[in-house]
Input
Amino acid sequence: MTVTTIRVLLADDEAMVRAGLRLLIDNEPDLTVVGEAVDGAEAVAVAGRTAPDVVLMDVRMPNVDGIEAARQIIAARPEARIVMLTTFREDRYLQDALRAGVSGFLLKVSPPQQMLDAIRVVADGGGLLDPSVTLRVIETFSGQAGRTSRADDLARLSPRELDVLAFVARGMSNAEVAARLYIGEATVKTHVANFLMKLGLRDRVQAVAFAYESGLLRPGEPDTTG
Output
């Protein structure tokens, strides 16, 4: 059986960080590093030459930061998936990253296996947030709940799509949603694809932010869906 190799680009202004990530990634049979960049401008250029599946990128870099680099890479190659790495806990970076279309957001102190899992998850079209980041997403975007433009978007969804979105935003997998709603996983996957398309979202990470920003969910709200 042929193993599909996931192509990874590393973007960080610290050489030791890049070296450590390269060693970790290149030791995996299904992952390979295709390029490195020391700042956002170089990341955009290298991404254009190497066509990576996943970009692991520091948020704060000289010249062009990771957020702007992510915007440019995604604009040029919408299929590219970006995982942001940071040691900082500033919500401004979190909001900007998610709105730029970033698919994952991890702390640099995340365990190596979590980093590797994140690459595979986003390469497969999913999204991933560090658990501590998930709480910040909820706190940050729930504070903006009720914004008319976001709330009105909910009207585009069918009742079942709203149910699935609510469960996905609570962190449930397709299998868990299927069991909760007594439907097949393939049906859940179809509903997820439909609400992402209708709402103009890239993945489940953005769906979490949308659910709280639109007011569909609120922190501490009891689960009465289904």
User: Anything to note?
Assistant: The beta strands are 6-11, 31-37, 54-58, 81-86, 104-107, 128-129. The first strand starts at residue 6 and ends at 11.
